[in-house]
From TrEMBL:
Source organism (scientific name): Limosilactobacillus mucosae
InterPro entries: Transposase-related (IPR052344), Transposase_IS66_central (IPR004291)
Domain Transposase IS66 central: 10-121
Record-given protein name: Transposase IS66 central domain-containing protein
One Pfam assignment: DDE_Tnp_IS66
């Protein structure tokens, strides 16, 4: 749906979104200890809701262009979506993956505006430092502050001493 677009409550797109939000709400409220338990609960609680969603969208007659494309894509991916009922480890949504690759996309887009190859390289180095700090559960601001201060204090700081996995760095900059 387009943000800011006002749709009637009885519009097919609105009803489809409401049905799908019930699926996600149910998924988020599952309580399980193992993937097998998650799979079992999904089959019992989530599958009927997802079946209702697909029955609804497949029954919409003469949808408008954008809704028709959304329905076509949802139906095309139905067999993949239904794999969550066979494999408990699969997430219902790919949001986590989307968020994990987002920094790469930002880097790529920002590099387009670098004035030179050296500028693009500097951007890449900076983003690499930030992402490495995040992956090592460091407070990124504290870590950057520490390494910039070290660099300004010394002409040749021992770089190994400032790597994110160094115990001293973890202690000073850990979350």
């Amino acid at each position: 749906m387009v943000k800011g677009l006002k749709l009637k409550d009885d519009a097919p797109a609105t009803q489809a979104v409401k049905l799908l939000s019930k699926v996600f709400h149910c998924e988020n409220n599952l309580q399980y200890q193992t993937p097998a338990e998650k799979k079992e609960q999904r089959q019992k609680l989530v599958k009927p809701l997802l079946d209702t969603f697909y029955a609804f969208i497949e029954g919409i007659s003469n949808p408008m262009h954008r809704l028709r494309n959304a329905i076509k894509n949802a139906v095309k991916l139905k067999s993949r979506v239904y794999q969550i009922f066979e494999i408990g480890e699969l997430p219902l949504s790919n949001n986590a993956v989307e968020q994990s690759i987002r920094p790469s996309t930002i880097i790529r887009k920002n590099s387009l505006f670098a004035k030179s190859t050296a500028g693009a390289k500097a951007n890449a180095i900076f983003y690499t430092i930030v992402q490495t700090a995040k992956l090592n559960n460091l407070n990124v601001f504290k870590y950057l502050e520490l390494i910039f201060e070290a660099h300004t204090r010394s002409q040749n700081p021992d770089l190994k001493a400032y790597l994110p996995w160094n115990p001293m760095i973890r202690q000073l900059c850990g979350n």
